[in-house]
Amino acid sequence: MTRVAYFDPHPAPTVPRQSPLHHMAEIAPTGDVAVTLREHAFRDHLNLRGEPGVLASAVESVTGLALPLEPQQVVFGDGTSLQWLSPDEWLLIVPGGEGFRLQRELRKALGDAHFSIVDVSGGQTLLSLEGEEAISVLMKSTVYDVDPRHFPVGKGVTSVFAKANAIIRRVDDTRWELVVRRSFADYCLRWLLDAGEEFGIAFQRAEHEVDAREAAPAGEAEMTT
Amino acid sequence: MSELQQRRVAAGAGLGLEIDRDRPLAFTFNGKAYQGYAGDTLASALLANGVDVVNRSFKYSRPRGVVAAGAEEPNAIVQLGASEATQTPNVRATQQALYEGLTARSTNGWPDAQRDMMSLIGKVGGPFMPVGFYYKTFKAPASMWLTYEKMIRKAAGLGRAPSEGDPDIYDHVHRHCDVLVIGSGPTGLFAALTAAKSGARVILCDEQERFGGSARDSDETLDGVPAPHWVAQIVERLAAMDNVTLLVRTTANGYFDHNFVTLHERRTEHLGDSAAMTGGRRQARSRLHRVRARHVVLATGAHERPLVYAGNDVPGNLLAGAVSSWIRRQAVRPGERLVLSTTNDTAYRAALDWQAAGGEVVAIADARANPEGAMVERARAAGMRIIAGSAVIEATTDRKGHRVNGARVAAVDIAGHRIDGSIETLVCDTVASSGGYSPVVHLAAHTGVRPVWRDDILGFVPGQTVAPVKGFHPVGAAAGVYSLGMAFDAIAEHLPAALAADGIALAPSAPPQLETLAQGEAVGLYHVPHDKPTMRAPKQFVDLQNDVTAAAIELATIEGFESIEHVKRYTAMGFGTDQGKLGNINGMAIAARCLGQTIPETGTTVFRPNYTPVNFGAIVGRHCGELFDPERYTAMHQWHVEQGAAFEDVGQWKRPWYYPRQKASGERETMHEAVARECRAVREQVGVLDASTLGKIDIQGPDAREFLGRIYTNGWEKLAVGKARYGLMCKDDGMVMDDGVTTCLADNHFLMTTTTGGAAAILEWLEIWHQTEWPELEVYFTSVTDHWATMTLTGPEARNLLSELTDIDLDREAFKFMEWREGTVAGVPARIYRISFTGELSFEINVQANYAMPVWEALFAHGDQYGLTPYGTETMHVLRAEKGFIIVGQDTDGSMTPEDLGMQWCVGYNKPYPWIGKRALTRSDTRREDRKQLVGLKPLDAEVVLEEGAQIVLDPKQAIPMRMVGHVTSSYYSPTLDHGFALAVVKGGHKRLGERVYLPMADGVTHVAEVVSSIFFDPKGQRQNL
């Protein structure tokens, strides 16, 4: 029987695509720039749910990332990241086009166990916020305590962001990442640009990562009997 | 320019510590040009220029001058701003730093404060304006009150809001700390340093222009250096620590639960037009810091209380401490000849400073029989005349009332509240008074803890009653500890222990060394007796801002107001921008004496946030304009915008409402025309709707099917892979809460859709039931609302159009109604659901949202020959209502059961597990036959479109109030039927089909409608099965 239906949502690379922020122009202020905001669009985002004991070894063998077991942990790899979202929920972000292959391999490794993997790539986008004043911009945006004493590198939370929600995580001393919902992306970006105006804020589109779409096989449904 | 700063004294030791005489600043007040220095407040600069009258009083229009040097100032309230757009009302001149070009006006007085027309009324009417004057005079006729009120408000003055948009911005910053120290006097600085040295995260804020509080104008030494130097040293050390945030010009205005404190920082108010601009505006003219602290140290100090004596409101009556502040900070001695009236030692400093600044001290009237103490000795040694056991009972004035010209001093019998012996009149131009000190307990009171009276310090202190606020530490004068040494010791001893309980280890801190002065005991005097009875004596003001006199309070108690809260409201004591900071304790003491009770028995009124007025901009922050509320967009939003769609707000989503087109005449279609065209296109050809906003929840797990059966009212055990089913959800009370189509994607995998507005709440609902009631079920839920873009292609030509773009076999037998298929559309991997909300042949195309636009555009590229028409939510509503499809939240209101909606077909009465809401449907109330039930209404007049919400009656001739039996829930004009039609709920409606009902409207017209089936179009559902 078919237990779960999933497919590769990516068309041929010739089909144009639009990020949630495609309509927003890049901004390069003339004066000082103390914060740089980038959209890292078109990555694949997978939502993983399951007991840690069920997921841990399969996730590590397939992704090379150790499943963070401590609350509010996030681990970063080469273009990848894996974040604890709740006691049975993680967010895996990988280069665009790799999501389907990883899902297939994870499902194979996990076998009959009870878990869920959901592709949410179209529903959210990754932003990075970099620079000495990045933390000040965050302090104007979220009620969560982002002070380095309380928010070390490698921490990630889901919290209130202005009047929306966002995933907020710290990559290194001056670099932060936000994961925002597609429908709220316009609002969140406008908010960030406004909050950063006093410091000088630039908005750029990150260089598109290598498009792994061509490598992935055509759509299929997982069949287990 | 007027005379140059005639009251500024020459430089000297301890004089003008904070001004820079090399930086003169020009400013205007009431249109007249003046000059001050950097380091002045507007108040000190006005005093330096001899401006005695700065305002007119609220009720009697009496001339008023500056009284205090801080937030407690009741009179010097100004309207600030050089241009209309930058007007700021009710700024306390005592807290406004002077800047080049500052422009201010009095808030009250016409044509100005010097020559005020209203004062005629005050003078003539004064004796006839007793307490409650407005209540008593303007009470009839009641209908006129609104008119009276406008006039009274205008006459009462206070500032005005700008009439133009504010060019500047205000914002919020969220802060967290271990210790928030409010107030930077010596105790606040010591507490901050003690905490900060050990690495704790500390925020220190002070509402004044600079740190230091009382140490700014103290002549004492701390750690062997003059107090102002000590302040500078400590502040320098704190500024160098990266765990410390220093916020000056920042008022703690509200103290809320869990040590959440709002700080209002005035960032550019001291700079005026010289403030830096970015993006054409002052970046955060003021800022609200929303601080969540683990510990709050309240080091807010104390406010000096003035004495209440006759004529105490005339310019020239000052607070003793303020006199010292102006002399020592800004080298301003606001007069020539001083009489001091005091109840305590500390106020003697005013006289000593006055003399040091070259003024004449005429006498010190000390209410104590035997004044003694170090300060008293210094005054005696300086040759000052001290009149023991006496007080100033009246300040006399010139004819205009613009300045004090004498003081009447008499011996007072405090216990008997009368004067004792003869009255001496002293010639002077200034009367300074001090009736003791009131700890600033306002913030502590915000937490709900009532202040407690202490007889030993003659003041209220923060209460620590049944449930003390965790992490709250009043220190120093704010806690009633006036000895600096004792305050330091208390901090050194208690703060580390308190923080240790929270795991914050503080190293011991040695208290600063200081010289101790012998202090004489103070005496409690609030209302100075006069030679005439209070009611007949010249006015003795308690609350200067609201013109409340001792006589008014006495009269209020005579008229039966016994609760201090009632006295406050009757007399207006403690209202206004100063919230009774100066007058309230005196007023309570007077009320207590009149009522024959003690001050603690009388109690205080409740201090509420905000401590000082906060401008609306700071409260709003950046949550205004385009950032007021999130606008949620679908992947096709820009296309809708470019097509000129009108939008409708659905939750936070912007959904296309309808797409008005240009008509042949060149005009834009009306909504009615656009909707009629869109409806016809769907019924006759093909339309497309952006349905991406529908909530979508991915459900995986072996128990997914079982879970659905418990959540939905209908059955799911037999739904085959590849099939979809409409489901209805009830709350546990049996009332419909949501609906939508759920599809079986694979044996352990379902996709649930919810209403647009219900998406987040339904996901929570599923999690709550799973986590709390059925954790044994193996199932997981994940929101995919934003991941999938959804396009509803619907109409007789839908199949023909879609077949040009997809590899899926769309044959009616190969792909049946209520099934789904996977394939590609325009080359993009897609899932297509054959479900219908219009009653027409429909295909809902779902693709990963990043690829939505190429698919959407491909539909239009091929759509012309089929008449493809985009339609919005209004057309969607008309089409679904023609089919009798409900919208949860429009046709239901939380009181409708599935049976009320006639949806018994969607209820699995015999399901093995009792689904949520099942039991409630057996309650006697849900079984009533006269419940409101969903029906269709067809107006007899085809042109009538009934009003949604219109009430329904059975007998239009009955007398008002009529018996209402239901109301219209949805109503539209149907271009297909060429007839108005409606859905409605009617009591016992399911048995009334064919009956006539009546809808009496507010304009007198009564519509008549026939009760019909709620399905108006294609009752057999043939069109969706094409």
From TrEMBL, chain A:
SUPFAM superfamilies: Folate-binding domain. Pfam families: SoxG. It comes from the Bacteria. This is Sarcosine oxidase subunit gamma.
TrEMBL record, chain B:
InterPro entries: 2Fe-2S-bd_N, FAD/NAD-bd_sf, FAD/NAD-binding_dom, GcvT/YgfZ/DmdA, GcvT/YgfZ_C, GcvT_C, GCVT_N, Sarcosine_oxidase_asu. The keyword Transferase applies. Keywords: Aminotransferase, Oxidoreductase, Transferase. Residues 178-449 form the FAD/NAD(P)-binding domain. Residues 932-1018 form the Aminomethyltransferase C-terminal domain. Pfam families: Fer2_4, GCV_T, GCV_T_C, Pyr_redox_2, SO_alpha_A3. Residues 636-911 form the GCVT N-terminal domain. Residues 538-619 form the SoxA A3 domain. NCBIfam families: soxA (TIGR01372). Belongs to the GcvT family. This is Sarcosine oxidase subunit alpha. It comes from Salinicola rhizosphaerae.
